[in-house]
């Protein structure tokens, strides 16, 4: 049997599947690109052809203009020059997928970014047994153990109710996090209008078009200060402390991110209400996933590789670090 790495190879710009002459999440334009999800550190424009879920292709169209896309539904499989390829849910954002590639009797799963927590805006992660599992490690340190999402949303609502003359301004990344915060608020019974920064509008509309119920969303710029008292307002993290936010009624500045576990990060952003809500797996979810999938080998990228590689060694799992360029946390 050929070595596992003989037909799939990591390069700084992406993962190359040799028999298919295709790249997974390439950071440079390629003739054939297989894309796990729509975040800009995984989905770039300029490829000759893109295979992705219909939702990811819609996100790429929204961001980069029309793409030469080949939609692949969850569970659908196709062959590319002798390689069997399928997409299964990753639980990260709308349309996010793990890419399963099989060749020569071996199976490799490229997880992209993933989480194991329930999320009303996307399909849940599906564990797939495999020979090689390529995993992220954004929060690959034991210090990162995320609290329950509902408890963080309840903290937000409590602060809002305690301060009816103020508003809560939540910094949330435009793709995935903003829509999840809205949906989680609705799940906790918050049916009030939620106000959004204009930079979030297109992707919120796209989520609604794909059947994700977000309720009454209104543009924050069209509302007066009195209307915004006692309301939740969402904006990109970059707008939390800029001139745009100064027109709001004494905002309680919040940030929804797994990085809010680190107090220094909250202080650096002048965040009054840090909300530890992540779209990535925490330490326990990463290690539980590896235990559940039981791969022969693990390739680790996108974060704190050393600790997870050490954990693998302690559990007799062969592991290696990948050095892919262009992978950022995108204000998780």
Architecture overview:
The protein has 332 residues and is of the alpha/beta class. It has two domains: 182 residues, Ribonuclease Z/Hydroxyacylglutathione hydrolase-like (Metallo-beta-lactamase, Chain A); 127 residues, 3-Layer(aba) Sandwich (Rossmann fold), CATH 3.40.50.12650. The protein is built from eight helices and 19 strands. It has a seven-stranded mixed sheet, with helices on one face. Strands 1-2-3-4-5-6 form a six-stranded mixed sheet. It has a six-stranded parallel sheet with strand order 14-13-15-12-16-17, covered by helices on one side. β16, α6 and β17 form a beta-alpha-beta unit. The radius of gyration is 20 Å and the shape is globular. The protein starts with 7 loop residues before the first strand and ends in an 11-residue tail after the last strand. The mean pLDDT is 94.
């Amino acid at each position: 049997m050929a070595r596992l790495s003989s037909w799939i190879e990591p390069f700084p710009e992406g993962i190359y599947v040799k028999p298919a002459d295709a790249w997974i999440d390439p950071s440079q334009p390629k003739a054939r690109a297989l894309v796990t999800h729509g975040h800009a550190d995984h989905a770039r424009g300029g490829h000759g052809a893109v295979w992705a879920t219909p939702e990811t292709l819609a996100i790429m169209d929204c961001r980069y203009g029309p793409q030469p896309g080949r939609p692949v539904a969850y569970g659908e499989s196709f062959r590319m020059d002798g390689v069997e390829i399928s997409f299964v849910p990753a639980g990260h954002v709308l349309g996010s997928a793990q890419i399963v590639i099989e060749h020569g009797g071996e199976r490799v799963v490229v997880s992209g970014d993933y989480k194991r927590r329930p999320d009303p805006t996307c399909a849940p992660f599906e564990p797939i047994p495999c020979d090689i599992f390529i995993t992220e490690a954004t929060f690959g340190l034991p210090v990162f153990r995320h609290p329950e999402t509902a408890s963080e949303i309840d903290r937000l609502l409590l602060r809002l109710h305690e301060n009816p003359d103020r508003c809560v301004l939540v910094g949330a990344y435009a793709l995935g996090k903003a829509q999840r915060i809205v949906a989680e608020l609705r799940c906790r019974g918050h049916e009030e209008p939620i106000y959004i920064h204009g930079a979030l509008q297109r992707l919120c509309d796209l989520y609604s078009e794909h059947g994700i119920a977000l309720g009454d969303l209104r543009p924050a710029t069209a509302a007066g200060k009195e209307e915004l008292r006692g309301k939740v307002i969402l904006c990109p993290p970059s707008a939390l402390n800029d001139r745009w936010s100064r027109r709001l009624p004494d905002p309680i500045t919040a940030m929804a991110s797994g990085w809010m576990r680190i107090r220094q990060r909250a202080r650096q952003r002048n965040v009054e209400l840090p909300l530890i809500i992540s779209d990535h797996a925490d330490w326990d979810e990463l290690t539980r996933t590896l235990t559940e999938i039981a791969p022969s080998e693990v390739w680790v990228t996108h974060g704190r590789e050393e600790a997870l590689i050490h954990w693998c060694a302690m559990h007799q799992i062969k592991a290696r670090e990948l050095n892919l360029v262009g992978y950022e946390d995108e204000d998780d």
